[in-house]
UniProtKB/TrEMBL annotation:
<keyword id="KW-0132">Cell division</keyword>
<dbReference type="InterPro" id="IPR016491">
    <property type="entry name" value="Septin"/>
</dbReference>
<dbReference type="Pfam" id="PF00735">
    <property type="entry name" value="Septin"/>
</dbReference>
<dbReference type="InterPro" id="IPR027417">
    <property type="entry name" value="P-loop_NTPase"/>
</dbReference>
<protein>
    <submittedName>
        <fullName>Cell division control protein</fullName>
    </submittedName>
</protein>
<keyword id="KW-0547">Nucleotide-binding</keyword>
<comment type="similarity">
    <text>Belongs to the TRAFAC class TrmE-Era-EngA-EngB-Septin-like GTPase superfamily. Septin GTPase family.</text>
</comment>
<keyword id="KW-0131">Cell cycle</keyword>
<keyword id="KW-0342">GTP-binding</keyword>
<dbReference type="InterPro" id="IPR030379">
    <property type="entry name" value="G_SEPTIN_dom"/>
</dbReference>
<feature type="region of interest" description="Disordered">
    <location>
        <begin position="315"/>
        <end position="337"/>
    </location>
</feature>
<dbReference type="GO" id="GO:0051301">
    <property type="term" value="P:cell division"/>
</dbReference>
<feature type="domain" description="Septin-type G">
    <location>
        <begin position="28"/>
        <end position="300"/>
    </location>
</feature>
<dbReference type="GO" id="GO:0032161">
    <property type="term" value="C:cleavage apparatus septin structure"/>
</dbReference>
<dbReference type="GO" id="GO:0043934">
    <property type="term" value="P:sporulation"/>
</dbReference>
<dbReference type="GO" id="GO:0000921">
    <property type="term" value="P:septin ring assembly"/>
</dbReference>
<dbReference type="GO" id="GO:0005525">
    <property type="term" value="F:GTP binding"/>
</dbReference>
Length: 337
């Protein structure tokens, strides 16, 4: 620990708490878990690899002609530890198979919601163990990137169904997939329509308004809400543009630089997720989504225990009456997708 800035007798030293916390945090690292939801081929894997500048998950996009085309076929979490300036993040990307690809998409969201609730349940179980682990491995989903099809006119009925359910259990960040397929005007109209439809269907996407927010946070969050849904373009390819390497996509008419703010909202999305709201995404998961799950689970257990106690008590009074089996307290977790 570095020496206190002020060594006088009157200096108490509790202002070093931030340094103390930082050291602990650096030693421990942290988990960040992101789920990708959207139709097959919408560029989910490519975008997340672009955001983290690493090839974390397989994308259909081939980086060499020899590579085979891959397609995500099951919910597959991939964890990797990334390090930047001494800070370690255990990043888990949960890639989900294409959504809405079937003729009948009824219930196609069930496995995704189940996965998210399973992680809450696993955390609660570890938290309630008589001998808890000092640090609970956090597999709870902190953010969901929801990919909207740029070819649709707005939210489709399936999007509404899925978004309603997803926003109840996690922080949803909607993005317009492959936005390079739209003109600037189309993108503006599409964004406006999505915003209106989210309000109409009462779908609350992240970031949520909070009374704790100061003026600065309010301004930042309002500028982010203006951008939602983020019009993104992803690429794992480095293209040479007049001798300058550019991460982008080559079209017949030119090259899209994914980092260029006039071409897409990619940089805004990445800054928002990683530079300004990373800690808030984790905190809100714990304080809002997990807390709701925890409260409802513990309430259910309490009610069942009360029923058991009542059954036991009435068993004493009505000893002569035929006995019914007492209700069982369930193991935590019902996947109520
Ligand atoms: N035009 C355009 N194409 C993209 C973009 N992002 C990815 N692609 C291409 O779209 C195809 C599918 O990309 P993936 O990232 O594998 O899509 P996915 O959503 O992960 O697909 P599944 O895993 O099958 O669900 C590849 O050929 C990518 O190169 C984008 O922003 N714009
Ligand atoms: Mg994929």
């Amino acid at each position: 620990m570095s020496a206190p800035a002020n060594d006088s007798q009157d200096y108490v030293g509790f202002d070093t708490i931030t340094q103390q916390m930082e050291r602990k945090f650096l030693k421990r690292g942290f988990n960040f878990n992101v789920i990708l939801v959207g139709e097959s081929g919408m560029g989910k894997s490519t975008l997340v690899n672009s955001i983290f500048s690493s090839h974390l998950v397989d994308s259909q996009g081939r980086r060499t002609a020899q590579e085979v085309i891959r397609k995500t076929t099951e919910i597959s979490p991939v964890t990797q530890t990334l390090e930047e300036n001494g800070v370690r993040v255990r990043l888990t990307i949960i890639d989900t198979p294409g959504f809405g690809d079937q003729c009948n998409n009824e219930g196609c969201w069930v496995p995704v919601i189940k996965y998210i609730k399973d992680q809450h349940a696993a955390y609660l179980e570890r938290e309630l163990k008589p001998q808890r682990d000092r640090v609970i491995n956090d597999t709870r989903v902190h953010a969901c990137l929801y990919f909207l099809n740029p070819g649709s006119r707005g939210l489709r009925p399936l999007d509404v169904e899925v978004l309603k359910r997803l926003t109840e259990v996690t922080n949803v960040i909607p993005v317009i997939a492959k936005s390079d397929s739209m003109t600037v005007e189309e993108r503006t109209v599409f964004k406006r329509r999505i915003k209106e439809e989210l309000v109409f269907h009462r779908i609350a996407v992240y970031p949520y308004p909070s009374e704790e927010d100061g003026e600065e946070d309010r301004l930042l969050n309002s500028s982010i809400r203006d951008l939602v849904p983020f019009a993104v373009v992803g690429s794992e390819e480095i293209i040479d543009v007049n001798g300058t390497p550019v991460r982008g996509r080559r079209h017949g008419w030119g090259v899209i630089n994914i980092f260029d703010e006039t071409h897409s909202d990619f940089v805004h999305l990445r800054n928002f997720m990683l530079r300004t709201h990373l800690s808030d995404l984790i905190e809100v998961t714990s304080q809002r989504h997990y807390e709701q799950f925890r409260t409802s689970q513990l309430r259910q257990i309490k009610e069942l225990r009360a029923q058991q106690a009542a059954a036991a008590a009435s068993g004493g009074i009505m000893a002569s009456m035929p006995q019914q089996a007492p209700p069982q307290v369930p193991a935590i977790h019902q996947s109520m997708a």
